[in-house]
Amino acid sequence: MKKLVTIIALIIILPSYQIMAQGNNKAKFEKYKPGYYQNFILKDVNAVKEKQNPEKSVIKFEMDQSGMDLPNNLDAYSDNNYWHFDPTSQGNTGTCWCFSTTSFYESEEYRLFKKEVKISEMFTVYWEYVEKAKGYVASRGTSVFDEGSEANAVNRIYKKYGVVPRSVYDGLKDGREYYSHAEMAKEMKTYLTSVKKTNAWNEDEVVSTIKSILNHNMGVPPTQFTYEGNNYTPVSFLNDYLKLNIDDYVDVLSYMQKPYWQQVEYEVNDNWWHSEDYYNVPLNDFMKVVNYAIENGYTITVGGDVSEAGFSRETNVALVPDFDIPSEFINDNARQFRFSNKTTTDDHGMHMVGYYKDKNGKMWYLIKDSSSGSRNVGPESSIFGYYFFSEEYMKLKIMDILVHKDAFKSYLKKFK
User: Fold this and answer.
1) Residue 10: which residues within 8 A CB-CB, separation 6 or more?
2) Domain total for the chain?
3) Could you report the per-residue pLDDT of 165-205, keeping only the tens digit for each?
4) Residue 255 maps to a domain
């Protein structure tokens, strides 16, 4: 009887127990948040590690420009500040050669045809990587494959592959605001290293693989597109819309290791295809070309060294301090000496868009830049993305320029 009572009681209680067990409790998915372990225990562990192995601070020896009267404001250049789009960031890429030269051609388009066209940098970069891959195969792995190149690479790519507006192809994926090519470049170089190790020199296969990596990271470049209601290919856009004659542009170089008054090779890694198109002139003539061009309405792509004691990321001004070399001693020999001992290096490409002549007749140059260094002043500053080069800095540290041939025509007849 006792057992029967117990069974009856369980029969009565069990449904209510099941109801309680299967109540209205809620469940949810929640993103993991760091807790006590991360916020206190690990923080303490890491703090002790940092004390035991402190990071060494990098101390840079540089010119103190505080208190100097410097023309580092856009107002000083307002009378001679030629049309250009606002500075555009190259992000985490080594593509200054393309950003500076693309900006140059945008200004040329406006100078010649009064058209404001934002041109895609990454369309050019994409095809330059493809050309580098071809060069790597042709040279059996001795050609340089990296992010850098030279201004006249843009000319070469334009003539072969054409041009597209940035609105058609910007090369940004996955919601990125800034470009970042470090991982992409690493992947391509790792692949090409394996090609070299295995002697797998099949150009079609190599190019196909490189394109696959580029497509994944940058997107597939267009072969046809519509712009302002008309259909174009990249080549027809260059020829029929922009109407820029790429053969009208010349590279001018000044160094002593090759003969002056000849077209020579610029012997730097970024000239990976060994272009010998550079018109090599003495330094005084080089500066005359620069000043004639900028004073007569031409903008210029410039390339050279930006890692100097007189190059300030606080004032955005580039000077040559007298503890480096007094300005009166800057000549061909001083310039070549620094290039030969690698204290002048082929660092960076930029776009000269204006000038200012101070009360002493000294030239200053307004430089539009795509790198992060010119942006340390902050986006609220009017000089965000600009540098200001002194005449001495240009003379000593800028090695080559790209300019319209009309600014160089008086010199062309001197070349053999």
Assistant:
1) none
2) 1
3) 999 999 999 889 999 999 999 999 999 999 999 999 999 99
4) yes
